[in-house]
Write a structure and sequence with these properties.
- About 75% of the residues lie in helices and about 0% in strands.
- With about 200 residues, it is mostly helical.
Length: about 200
């Protein structure tokens, strides 16, 4: 299994759970929950593959559908829909962060595979990372996370820069990608809990 497939699987599961939690929190019916989970988990990857002129993963494999459905069923089984005060809960923050970081890495890898330049790598990593979450937020009529959290899209950009640097020195391997994932994960969590903000023009 390639690094791209691993990051895609991790991202799909994490964002499917994130979409499930948001949908339940906003009291959507079962169809709304399923649609929101699918859009959150697969939206960014579909846009990524289209921009990279590739057949979207969901259109060529059944694995993404199986992962989303299984995640929703397991979430229901463990009664995660009973969680209250969602925005402040570690479960939501962690799953959303894992999805963000995983898809940032997969977006950067795809961009490198198809020969995008540095700008293309940054944009594809960011679009892959925030695409599904943005569709999720629009579905439930809330401000997209990347617009209300300064270090959301910024985390994707930082990770894309790291992956680009690793490619430049020919050091993209399991260990370096795992290190990048852990760094991105803790960067996002630290920024979230310490409420880091980007500088603003006054």
């Amino acid at each position: 299994m390639s690094a791209l497939e691993v990051t895609d699987i991790i991202g799909i599961i994490s964002f499917a759970l994130s979409g499930f939690l948001i949908a339940v929190h906003h009291k959507l019916d079962i169809l709304g929950i399923i649609i929101t989970s699918f859009l959150t988990a697969l939206g960014g990857g579909i846009v990524r593959d289209i921009l990279a002129n590739k057949s979207p993963f969901i259109f060529t494999h059944y694995l993404p559908v199986i992962l989303v459905i299984s995640t929703v069923l397991i979430a229901i089984l463990f009664k995660l829909h009973k969680i209250t005060d969602l925005e402040g809960k570690t479960t939501f923050v962690v799953t959303d962060t894992i999805g963000l970081v995983s898809f940032s890495i997969s977006g950067a890898i795809v961009a490198l595979e198809v020969g995008f330049n540095f700008v293309g790598i940054l944009l594809l990593a960011m679009i892959t990372a925030i695409g599904g979450g943005t569709l999720r937020d629009v579905m439930v009529n809330r401000v997209p996370t990347f617009l209300s959290s300064d270090f959301y899209a910024s985390t994707a950009i930082v990770i894309a820069c790291i992956i680009t640097a690793l490619d430049y020195i020919d050091q993209i391997n399991f260990l370096s990608l795992l290190t990048s994932f852990v760094f991105g994960f803790f960067l996002r969590l630290t920024a979230h809990y310490r409420k880091w903000k980007l500088p603003k023009l006054s």
